[in-house]
Amino acid sequence: MIASSAITIPLAWRVGVRFLPLATYPLFFGMQQVAEGFVWLGIEKHQGYESVSAAMVFLFFAYWFWPTWVPFSAAACEPYRFRQRLFIAFTVLGIAGGSLLYLPIMLNPSILQIDLIHNSIRYLNPEMFTNETSKMVARVIYAVIICVPLLLSSHPKIRVFGLLILISVLAGFFFASHAFTSIWCFFAAGLSAYMIVVLRSLEKKTGTAPAL
Q1: CA 7 to centroid of chain Cα atoms
Q2: Any idea what the Cα angle at residue 199 is, between residues 167 and 31, rounded to 5°?
Q3: Cα dist from 207 to 15, 81, 119, 203, 204, whole Å
Q4: What does the pLDDT look like over 180-189, one tens digit per residue?
Q5: End-to-end CA distance of the chain, in Å?
Q6: What pLDDT, in 10s, does the model give residues 65-86?
């Protein structure tokens, strides 16, 4: 994933700097997965402090960064004013929602529970999510903030990426709900390499208006 950014970032420079936020997806997803690698190492060594420290980095990306960065990146490259403003509104929602998810564990990491279930890492904040219904509502809102700006983009290849992300979210809901955060971020990290396809397509069409 990080290696893909060596292709996507130079592509974005050629296509236009407004596409740089999209081009950084593989880099940031790669950094997030490295952080979760340290979570695994901490669990294997039975070093809770190491797991929590690495988990805080991983969850910063999962809870706060992506709900903000994805709609922002969609807004940055959107040529149509109405959609751009809509995506900026989603960015504000992402900042607010991410704050609600991340600030409690940032201020009090001891409330975070990390365990293994079915060979996957599960992150729990029992003080915020007291039952399955509250977790499901949070996941649906999260998915809307992440997916809608991509699915409504004026750029066809970005819409395809949004569809792939939506499929990965649904797969996480139905097949890995026990460790949704970890599993979905893994899927999305792999899909981030699709930014190469997106940016190469845009490079070929530089100077032309995207289709509605």
Answers
A1: 20
A2: 65
A3: 9, 18, 48, 9, 9
A4: 788 877 788 7
A5: 30
A6: 999 999 999 999 999 999 999 9
